[in-house]
Amino acid sequence: MPIMGVSKFERLFRAAGSLDVDRDDIKRYGDFVNQKLHDLLLIAQATAKANSRDVIQSSDLPITKGLQESIHNFTKLDQEIETQPILAYLATRPPLDLALSEEVQERLPVIAGGLSVALARTFKIIDPHRRNPGAQEWERAFQIFDLLL
């Protein structure tokens, strides 16, 4: 992640969850965003195929109420921080069997932002008093998201 991206990443987590993250957390964060976006897209692909379509549409994405709220919260935060270009950079994914619609491609950075807000708030639920999540908190957060997404 570019140097400018590191400071925006730190500001996003500070704003979303009163957390102090550092450069060591960036790889974990990038892995998290890519894996969860890929998981969402795999389910969206199955939905599109079940509906006999060869392009994944926005309505195929399994966006839950909680994730949608996190996306809205991210949008409000991002007006100040401007992380969408960085999230677009992070939102690389392995190829799928189906193509993504233009709308889905445009939504990926905002969805990644919503996942980021949800992740920051998950850390505060795991340990409300901890300001800098360690490896154990990251692993727990990953396990929680694997159960739910």
Description:
The chain has a single domain (3-148), classed as Histone, subunit A (Orthogonal Bundle). The longest helix is centred in the N-terminal third of the chain and has 28 residues, at 23-50. The chain has six helices and two strands. With 149 residues, the chain is an all-alpha fold.
Keywords:
globular, 3% strand, two-stranded parallel sheet, single chain, mainly alpha
The coarse overall form would be globular
Major β-sheet strand ordering: 1-2
- The figure for the number of domains is 1
Please report the first level of CATH classification, the CATH class: Mainly Alpha
CATH architecture: Orthogonal Bundle
Name given to the CATH homologous superfamily: Histone, subunit A
The oligomeric state is single chain
Radius of gyration, rounded? 15 Å
> What structural class results from the helix and strand content?
mainly alpha
List the helices and strands and how they pair.
Blueprint: H1 3-17, H2 23-50, E1 55-56, H3 65-81, H4 84-90, E2 99-100, H5 102-126, H6 135-148
Parallel strand pairs: 1-2
Helix pairs in contact: 1-3, 1-5, 2-5, 3-5, 4-5, 5-6
Gist of the model:
This protein has 149 residues and is mainly α. Helix content is 71%, strand content 3%.
